[in-house]
């Protein structure tokens, strides 16, 4: 019998009539509905239209206004799925820092759905530094896509060699240098990309990646993260 990844209770799953007769592949969730309901899903009606930051109105948020000044012709079109609250931090810490890779499957249904909604885009997980990869053993964003069965391309490398992002404070992150490099400049022109990262904090990392693809002639760039 299958148990919930988060609470270990046995999951009873009954197919609805619609699911039975839709003949669509059935996406099995690794966690029960009551555990999944504890995560705060970002409703786009009450979020920043550019970066999905959860807020009371639909205006561009402070972070995005700042980026607009710095990159007036590069409007962010970012979608985040869940609020980066205590619950999401708990998940990320089990997955990314404890290294329990079973947790990579938690949001696979969301990722599969977004892949089907963005079929014309090449999914690109943001790479982590060599040092982080050696310590952790995996790139958390890449493994999330892999686990969900979402095809992706590794077109970026991260040559950052200093301390890990999570050890730096917000101010230091805002001014950090371009950490990415394109593997093959020629493979970007006129193609559309969807950049993917586990968490979007200030947007700095995502904008570095976006700026690189923009200058290499990408046709369109969207981005996505689990948390914001
Ligand atoms: Zn549960
Ligand atoms: Zn915003």
Architecture overview:
The chain is an alpha/beta fold. The chain has a single domain (40-227), classed as Rossmann fold (3-Layer(aba) Sandwich). It is built from nine helices and six strands; from the N terminus they run αααβααβααβαββαβ. The protein has helices at 17-22, 33-36, 62-70, 86-97, 108-117, 130-136, 140-148, 170-174, 204-215; strands spanning 78-82, 122-125, 156-158, 180-182, 192-199, 220-227. It has a four-stranded parallel beta sheet with strand order 1-6-5-2, sandwiched between helices. A two-stranded antiparallel ribbon has the order 3-4. The longest helix is centred in the middle third of the chain and has 12 residues, at 86-97. It is globular and about 50 Å long. 32% of the residues are buried. One zinc ion (ZN) binds next to helix 2. The site of one zinc ion (ZN) has 8 residues, from helix 3.
């Amino acid at each position: 019998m299958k148990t919930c990844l988060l609470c270990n209770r046995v999951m009873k799953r009954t197919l609805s009539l619609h699911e039975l007769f839709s003949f669509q592949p059935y996406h099995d969730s690794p966690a029960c509905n009551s555990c999944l309901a504890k995560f705060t899903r970002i409703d786009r009606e009450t979020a920043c239209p550019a970066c999905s930051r959860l807020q009371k109105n639909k205006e561009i948020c402070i972070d995005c206004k700042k980026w607009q000044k710095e990159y007036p012709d590069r409007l962010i079109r970012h979608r985040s799925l869940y609020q980066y609250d205590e619950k999401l931090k708990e998940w990320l810490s089990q997955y990314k820092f404890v290294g329990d890779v079973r947790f990579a499957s938690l949001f696979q249904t969301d990722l599969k759905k977004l892949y089907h909604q963005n079929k014309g885009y090449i999914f690109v997980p943001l790479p982590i530094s060599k040092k982080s990869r050696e310590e952790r053993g995996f790139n958390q964003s890449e493994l999330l896509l892999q686990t969900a069965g979402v095809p992706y391309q590794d077109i970026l490398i991260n040559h950052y060699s200093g301390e890990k992002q999570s050890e730096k404070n917000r101010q230091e992150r805002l001014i950090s240098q371009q950490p990415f490099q394109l593997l093959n400049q020629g493979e970007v022109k006129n193609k559309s990309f969807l950049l993917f990262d586990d968490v979007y904090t200030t947007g700095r990392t995502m904008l570095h990646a976006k700026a690189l693809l923009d200058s290499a002639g990408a046709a369109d760039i969207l981005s996505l993260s689990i948390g914001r």
